[in-house]
Amino acid sequence: MSRPRKWRSVCSLPPNSKFGPLGSPLEEEQPVIMTVDEYETIRLIDHEGMTQQECSEQMEVARTTVQGMYDSARKKLAASLVDGKPLLIEGGEYHLHDHSGQGLGRCGRGCRWRQRMNNPEGEDQI
């Protein structure tokens, strides 16, 4: 009997979940599907500048799991860009952080929810 999969902890859902080449309908091409947890690894490692170890602690999974998700996400991004295919972010085995209370769940420095609360105009901080 196999071990049950561990849910990956994600700060928040992506603000945009559909991307594609300009000028062509997204429905015409077979899309590349990236899971929400794969997106979270790209966000934390590439956008927030975390190491794989820091990312694994925030997502509450092993570093090797993060490494596998990150590699898969990068291949999907490359396929979408190089082949001109739409990219959809959906599905995966994750749960959202609970941002209530003092501890704010396991969210760390890359918390999108906390960034939005500190920036009431709703503009992303880059």
Can you lay out the helices and strands and say which pair or pack?
Blueprint: E1 8-10, E2 18-19, E3 32-34, H1 36-47, H2 52-59, H3 63-83, E4 87-89, E5 94-96, H4 112-118
Parallel strand pairs: 1-5, 3-4
Antiparallel strand pairs: 2-4
Helix pairs in contact: 1-3, 2-3
Task: Provide a brief overview of the structure.
This protein is of the alpha/beta class and 126 residues long.
How does this model look, in words?
- Pfam families: DUF134 (PF02001).
- Belongs to the UPF0251 family.
- This is UPF0251 protein SpiBuddy_0654.
- This protein is an alpha/beta fold.
- The protein has one domain.
- Helix content is 38%, strand content 11%.
- The strands form two sheets. Strands 2-4-3 form a three-stranded mixed sheet. The chain has a two-stranded parallel sheet with strand order 1-5.
- The radius of gyration is 16 Å and the shape is globular.
Q: Count the DSSP helices.
A: 4
Which structural class best describes the helix and strand composition? alpha/beta
Coarse shape: globular
Report the major sheet: 3 strands, mixed
Number of domains: 1
Rg over C-alpha atoms, rounded to the nearest angstrom: 16 Å
Distance between the termini: 45 Å
The amount of helix comes to: 25-40%
Q: Name the beta content range.
A: 5-15%
Low-confidence stretches: none
Number of DSSP E strands = 5
Sketch the topology as an H/E string, one letter per element: EEEHHHEEH
Task: Write out key terms for the chains shown.
alpha/beta; 5 strands; 126 residues; 3-stranded mixed beta sheet; 11% strand
